[in-house]
Design goal:
The complex is a heterodimer of chains A (264) and B (263). Chain A has 264 residues and is an all-alpha fold. Chain A is 83% helix and 0% strand. Chain B is 41% helix and 25% strand. Chain B has a 6-stranded mixed beta sheet, with helices on both faces. In chain B, strands 2-1-4-5 form a 4-stranded antiparallel beta sheet, covered by helices on one side. The chains are: A mainly alpha (264), B alpha/beta (263). Chains A and B meet through helix 4 and helix 5 of A and helix 2, strand 6 and helix 3 of B.
Chain lengths: 264, 263
Amino acid sequence: MTERKPNLFERVGATTFDLFHNTFYAFGFFWNVLGETFRFRSRSRVSTQVLVMQILFTGVNALFIITLIAVSLGTVIIFYGNQITTLVSTNFVYTILITVITRELGPLLTAFIVMARSGVAIATEISSMVVTHEIEAYLAVGINPISYLVVPRFLGVTLSMVALNLYFNLSGLAASYLVAQFFHPIPANEYFGQLMTQLTPTAVASSVVKSLAFGFVISMVSTLNGFRAQQSTTEIPIIVIRAVGQGFALLIVVNILITLVFPR
Amino acid sequence: MTSPAIELQNLAFHTGQGTLFADLNLTFFTGRCSVLMGPAGCGKSTLLKIAAGLIIPTGGRAVFEGLAWDTAAEERVLEARQRSGFVFQNAALWANKSVWQNIELPLVFHNPKMEKSQVDEKVRSAGRKVGLREIWNERPAHLSLGEQKLVSFARAIVHDPQVLFLDDPTAGIDSQLKEKLLGLIEEFRGLGKTIVLVTQDPTVTARVADDLAVMKNGKILSQGTLSEVARNTDPEVIDILTAVLSQAATFSGDILDLLSNGS
């Protein structure tokens, strides 16, 4: 006897139910992670070792690629900005630098790099651990996987995001100054002084809030998807692809929302 | 009969593919070695993990030393887990940690103030007990399945648990290592620890079981002491037990008597 295929209404109903179920599950997961984060200090020193390793991988090991992209972005802005400012006003290039590097592309590009490196690594690692029953082994010895695996990754990715965003800003703005010397030599104190006049508290707050929010999104999306693996290694690439897709989409949405909250 | 260590009450477990078991009741007693036998895929390992609180059932409850896994406060669950150890069928060692770190982690996580010398001594002692050779810095991927099971055993006993859960401990290992593991289980049994063991291997059952439960298609066909189960006249139980009892001849004359009296 062949099994009856569900009709359109049943499929829509099942998809809607799954969507609600997954959303509630995700909120429960975030709540659990936040609760365990507040208890992190009272936990064992071994969790701190995991945190240090995560900062090393997400933050320190990403410095080269961050430098490369920040310098490229700073160079491109000053190259085109130099042409535009001749038509508009001299100060306009500083506005562009702060808007693009500090407020918008700095945090977003840093987040994309962290998602592509650390998000993928975390989703792969956690899903492999589920499939090989390593997560159950943590439970069996009384170690809460949220506390031992997720919280250090959440803190490590978020702290690294803030630090990398700051580093991206410094590298991009310094690179733009060096490139500017080829087109329109300008004293360092004048260049950075002009930048500081454009660097409003709102711009700084927007950049910091974005890097914090992006760190949260990357760590949550990658760990949550990692835990969705069940029993087969063939699920792992599917989970990783889903995590990356969701991660990039959420980063873009969150970026837009924060930009709207912090107007110029 | 001693007091119940673990009680499984009206258990149900449904997956996306169907019902693994429903309305299942089973008790494991303190200080006894309880063996759960049955054909592959009948739900033994899932049942063991529910008993150990690693999986929450979709219905019913699992009570461990008076504590219901699904409703107890996290701190009490944590305490209960420190009174038990679990050896997984595939060893389930943490791949990114060395053998030493695998055995050490439960100790250092729960006892952050324990002296390093004390931790070292406990790890070495657990390694010695299971007969582990000096492979402390190796990663699990470099070990044979047998060695991985020994490390998993050492990890499960490093904190001196009162209850030990063993998921098919002798599957996929050579006879020499199997003998070693059986010796370890007997040693623990001799110490009065509670052991809950899942196996398909009649040799293991014949040698270490005090109590036996026979499971098939998600149902407990028979449960009780080994001698009680041996008297069961259900043809399905007899099928499964025949293998056990023929193996038992090697270990105990009493079991052979039971076979002739019971069947």
